[in-house]
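We give the chain.
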Amino acid sequence: FTPPSVQPPPPPPPRAAPPPPPATSSQKSPPAPTARPAAAPSQVTRPNPIQPGASQQRPQVPVESMQGPFPRQPTKQPAAAPPPMRAPPGMNDADVNALYAKYVSAKKAVGDDPGPGAFGKLLKTINTQAPKIMEQYNAKGVEFSIVVKDNQVIIKAKPKP
């Protein structure tokens, strides 16, 4: 014989709050606050120290005094970018581009990576060398060529008569 399972009695239903007593004519409800909203709970215990209109009571603070306890160092203006280099006298942009293409192919043939600044470096080199060679040989221009010697890429200059 198995005993019947015993189940606990169900919990009682929750009770509803008793309704408020009906208002009589002698009791009046307090008027709803319309002039001022209720203060935030944090301001009840510690009121906001800023009073309305406080900004008009004090003069404005100059900006220099708001820089902190240490004097601010004057910032240097970045130097203007130098104008882009031009082709040297006696050469045009097409000549410079052709020379650069030969330079890059020679660098790759040797196994070197020309790098991102190769064009500027080449242009700077030929711009510094061309006037010197023109003055030294009393030439009207300079003809540049790319030569590979001993596994190195060399820029060779030849004065134009």
Summary: The first strand starts at residue 141 and ends at 149. Residues 118-137 form the longest helix (20 residues).
